[in-house]
Design goal:
This protein has helices at 7-16, 59-62, 71-83, 92-104, 117-132, 179-183, 193-203, 226-239, 257-262, 288-291, 313-325, 328-351, 377-382, 385-400, 419-432; strands spanning 38-42, 45-48, 53-56, 110-114, 136-140, 185-188, 207-212, 242-246, 268-272, 282-286, 357-361, 364-368, 403-404, 410-412. With 439 residues, it is of the alpha/beta class. The protein is globular and about 60 Å long. Keywords: Aminotransferase, Pyridoxal phosphate, Transferase.
Amino acid sequence: MSTFGTPKSVALYERAKHVMPAGNTRHTVFRTPHQIYAERGEGCRIIDIDGNSRIDAVGNFTSLLHGYGSEAIKAAAREQLEKGFSFGMATPGEVRLSEILVERLPSVEHVRYCNSGTEAVMNAVKVARAFTGRAKIAKCEGAYHGAYDVVETSQEARPESWGDVDAPNPVPTAAGTPQGVLDDVVIIPFNNVELGEKILGAKGNDLAGVLIDVMPNRAGLVPATPEFLEMLRRVTKEIGALLIFDEVITFRLGYSGAQGRYGINPDVTALGKIIGGGFPIGAVAGRKDVMAVYDPSNGAPKVQHGGTFSANPMSMMAGIAAMEALTSEAFAHLEALGDRFETKITALFEELVTEAQVTGMASLRRIHLNKAELSDFRSTVLAGADGAKKVAALARLLFDEGVIIAANGLVCFSTPMTFGDIDEIIAAFARALPKLSEV
């Protein structure tokens, strides 16, 4: 039973069901028996339309690294708001934000903007195909790269459909996906150096690029091994394919993103979420010669790209403020928050004799209600659907205890959070976990 009253949300949900499928427009925030509607955010907390306050430990799915109270971001947005929302012209903000990204990412020389992480990955795939003249894309089984037919292949594969580990099947996610789309996707097992190299070598002449999220959330938030990434970097060079890092989420792992932590320079990087300061944004970035597929200076470019709101000044200015606030000290604080959470939640699991573990690193962590050895997507799935259902139930219980996490157990931290907030989150877990047996 929820400790929060939500009559206004109940009434609004009744209206919503008349104009949206199931009264919802994002599956990731769908709740039963009804939606809860946010009214405002303060620091690391969300206040709903009934006045209930909860700690936000998912940050609009990792995008709000500075929470809701950054004065620098609000000031930048207000200033741009007075000047204009968007223009059919280039603006100075896109130059400055690009300079920041180029400075932070040694692999990046040129940047191109769009409006979401999905668009960023979609554009990265187009860049790889245009640059190499090849069609096929390789990706890791179970990895989520946005809502685009090619890259969502096998993100929801299951034992009855995924095939042998040495030759994984490309499995459609959306009903009605054309077979031609599946034919252009090569699936490799995450963190398996030997099989990954074998599969990529066999398909090498057809591959435009290899797409990798080094810590894929929906595949368990298990970090890639250095050996696996080093193999991908070496093999892509050997076969003439581009190595594409999806850093839409993992760019928050450090000053130079995940690639900086691992010391691997991809050819193309897809960005989004935190680089917009809370506003819609995406970016595809990479080497100058690769990004030249967009260059219209000498005639029609190999890749056409527009977008009414691409590089819109609101996102650019908020993004500049957000990135400038992401100092080395800010990252150290985020790292400390993540470490404190893992230490305390692990101790709580032991105290309550709960079969559970934590994966991830830095400001990204994920709860699993099992102690199986997790190394890739298949090991995460085979750890049990029952565990996944219990995690979803735990997320609902935590919501009622005043803490918001993702339904799959993802937890992330933001710069306004304190150690006290972490302790409050742990206290909510302590209240919620014993109630799981009642669900």
